[in-house]
């Protein structure tokens, strides 16, 4: 993965994690808001129901008081009549004043101020009523020019009236359920506001009332119409500051959403990082069989003929080839190496099985790691696999480095089992470890591979180039074969051959090849 790809991936990761964190938090917030709105709507409905009951009750009481005046038998505005008016005004606590007016609306008398003759009502005339019912009831909404001077709601019939405080309609509403709502009572026949709570926007209330059938569920208004009277109430949600709203927000939802978001984002990050981590990608590669094998010819240094090949694994990662040095250590560390070894064997048998069966003189060397050398597992896989293909055990050889002898006793036992089964075993990278020599004494092996570092120095530095020569001498003493690795120059090949190394491998002869190229190469050196 190059820097650009890594940057793009990191950006994608951040975007995904942010979305994963925000989505549940956002949903939590929406639910919180919805639940808040539902609560608000339920509260408004309760207030509206109570307000309508109150408005109907007040109307009924005022009509009752008016009816009582109608039953007074004394002559209008006579002292007994006025006495009755005062009694009625006193017994009905909602009634502020009661009185009479003539056909032209001129004032005749008032329970508070007495008869016109007393002088104070002279010339006072009621304006045309704001509303007139079919059965002769009339009403004025918001009359100021009444005895007492206060704004009054006046109801009249047949020349007599009662006056009341309009706030009767809207006060004493229970606002314990929450912050005070705005309430307005409306006469539905003439669309006039009868009473409102203080500081209510009358024009806005009327507009809402007129739009009532279209008021949406989440509107901050509720309209209730009376079925028995031409009355309606409009309740508006209290105006709340942002802080009040935030305080009232159901935080449980919101916090739940945020917590879920964090958990989800954590999970997403973990999942993505795991998938994108080298280990996750390598596991994927094992699952998807993304490994290919290159075959580097091994040649007889005397005849320069090819005798076999070393199977070298490569990871085909998208359209790139990853070299084993970059993933074998990780695969060993993460317990994936055995699966890779198996896939290498499968590929070798698939690609070269026929070739090996046909030319028994060739062999393929397979590299094993420590876990492959601690149990018989690979041997148990190998035996039946080559038997199915008709490949002889001698044609599959094993390469093991010192690093793979972690459990020396187990390795010794497994190596001996491989040899007994007919597979030659080579000690790889010989001379690079600390105890190469002691291993030669402990393990019975068939050959050793002189590491490229010793071949590199041949012809350059007399002291270190003699190491290769010493190794070859020692191998002769122990009667094991020698394969020299990394031969790049003719001079090296000649030197090694002269010192007694039988086999060699390196770019001088051939780089690692595909199976088809290797078969061609082998044919060429055979002289076929
Ligand atoms: P190795 O077993 O020592 O393999 C020889 C390495 O030297 C190979 O590198 C090969 O391509 C390279 N080489 C061969 N001739 C020359 C040359 O003339 N000049 C230079 N500069 N290099 C040369 P490669 O394929 O990258 O393999 C690296 C190591 O990965 C191998 O070292 C081996 O230890 C390990 N490996 C490869 N395949 C497998 C496998 O299937 N299983 C396990 N466990 N390890 C493997
Ligand atoms: Ca090797
Ligand atoms: Ca080697």
From TrEMBL:
Coiled-coil positions: none
An annotated Gene Ontology molecular function: cyclic-guanylate-specific phosphodiesterase activity
E.C. numbers: 3.1.4.52
Superkingdom of the source species: Bacteria
Pfam families in the record: CSS-motif, EAL
Leader peptide range in chain numbering: none
Main location: membrane
One Gene Ontology cellular component annotation held by this UniProt entry: plasma membrane
EC class: hydrolase
Keywords on record: c-di-GMP, Cell membrane, Hydrolase, Membrane, Transmembrane, Transmembrane helix
Protein name (record): cyclic-guanylate-specific phosphodiesterase
